[in-house]
Description:
Keywords: Membrane, Transmembrane, Transmembrane helix. This protein is an all-alpha fold.
Amino acid sequence: MSYEEGLGLLSVVMLVMFIGIFAWAFSPSRKKKFDEAARTPLDDDAMEQNVADQAARVNKEQESLKP
């Protein structure tokens, strides 16, 4: 196999890999993962609020236990 044949074969292999990864990434079975990833920035705000509320409740409970 010559250098040029190797480059040609490598080009074909890379093209097939690209098409395979593209098809895998945009397959309908991945839609749920994409939707979850798209909601992540919005869910972070709600999570931060829940953590803050929980911390406030814990502080309030600890203060009520003090004599």
